[in-house]
Amino acid sequence: MGIKEITREKLNAAEFIKEKIKEISSGVGNSLAINALSGGVDSSTVTMLGHKALGNRLKTYFINNGIMRQNEPEQIVSVFKKLGIPVEIVDAQERFFSALKGITDPEEKREAITQAFYRDVFGQLVKKSGAKYLLQGTILTDVDETVAGIKRQHNVFMQLGIDPQEAFGYKIIEPLAELRKDGVRKIAEALGLPKSIYNRMPFPGPALAARVIGGVTPEKIEIVRLTTAITEEELTSSGAFQYMAILHQDKVTGIRNGKRDFGLQIELRCWDSLDARVATPTRLSYEILDKLANRIITEVPGVVSVTYNITKKPPSTIEAV
Ligand code: XMP
């Protein structure tokens, strides 16, 4: 809806950076802005652009929502500390788990996370800091999929007719809205972010809650967090675009130590893709799949089944929720 795409090929990184810094400084004027850093390439790029444009008039937070991966808050904060950018961790774990309590529908879960982020957590941070603007890393694929009604991405408002100023009390600036993921990586590299960031695998805003089918509880998140750590460890060398572990809602009959064990099912997904619009399952070797399954059933309590998704996007989507 009105956003013009800039493809990676057409993108002139130096010019884009100069232009966006100008846009952010004139947009924010003499006010203050805040942004949330998750460590993903989009929010990291916005953090760098924002700091170049606003210096200490931009306050960057890492929202610990309880649904991030192992040690993620500390790791990301330390990467940015080395770059000279201070990041404050906000502990919002309880708020997110209580917002998610009892919700099983995928779109309702996304909506609960959106409200917890934008209304509750940012609403308070804006009040506390006196900021008038939120900078965020929405990209064109987020907008496309939300507008098409495929999946409500957590960070899309204007295109849905929602005015953030009215709904949450602050304005949102989206410097990356004309880019796809491959374009953002090019800008991130040009901004001097480390490879661990500009090459970082995509990770969704709703975090591990997008990897639990059905109700989200701290216990289920812990299972998927542990499984994710194993999956990422085993698949980093695969060169794939994105890989993940998903905890299913239905249990299945298994057998352990000669006894019936009605246990958990994990689905693994590993994707080849350029920009997440279409994707194909990676042809992982059977040896890798076998090793993954063995590690998961021995290291993650309660799991009796591990499967691998072999469906392309579309009709699958990359995340299960
Ligand atoms: P899907 O599952 O829609 O994912 O095929 C496409 C890409 O977007 C990521 N994703 C999200 N990113 N907010 C985001 O910023 C979200 O709500 C969200 N949901 C999915 C997903 O990981 C994939 O790379």
Main β sheet profile = 5 strands, parallel
Tell me, rounded to a whole number, the average pLDDT: 95
Radius of gyration: 20 Å
Classify the secondary structure makeup into a structural class.
Answer: alpha/beta
Characterise this structure:
- By secondary structure, this protein is an alpha/beta fold.
- Helices cover 41% and strands 17% of the residues.
- The chain contains eleven helices and ten strands.
- It has helices spanning 13-28, 41-54, 72-82, 93-100, 106-129, 140-147, 164-168, 181-190, 195-198, 218-235, 286-299, and strands at 33-36, 58-64, 87-91, 133-135, 171-173, 242-247, 252-256, 259-272, 280-281, 303-308.
- The strands form two sheets. Strands 3-2-1-4-5 form a five-stranded parallel beta sheet, with helices on both faces.
- The radius of gyration is 20 Å and the shape is globular.
- Bound molecules: xanthosine-5'-monophosphate.
- Xanthosine-5'-monophosphate (XMP) binds at residues 142, 145, 151, 153-155, 202, 204-206, 210, 242, 276, 313, 317-319.
Task: Outline the fold blueprint.
Layout: H1 13-28, E1 33-36, H2 41-54, E2 58-64, H3 72-82, E3 87-91, H4 93-100, H5 106-129, E4 133-135, H6 140-147, H7 164-168, E5 171-173, H8 181-190, H9 195-198, H10 218-235, E6 242-247, E7 252-256, E8 259-272, E9 280-281, H11 286-299, E10 303-308
Parallel strand pairs: 1-2, 1-4, 2-3, 4-5, 8-10
Antiparallel strand pairs: 6-8, 7-8, 8-9
Xanthosine-5'-monophosphate (XMP) is lined by residues 142, 145, 151, 153-155, 202, 204-206, 210, 242, 276, 313, 317-319.
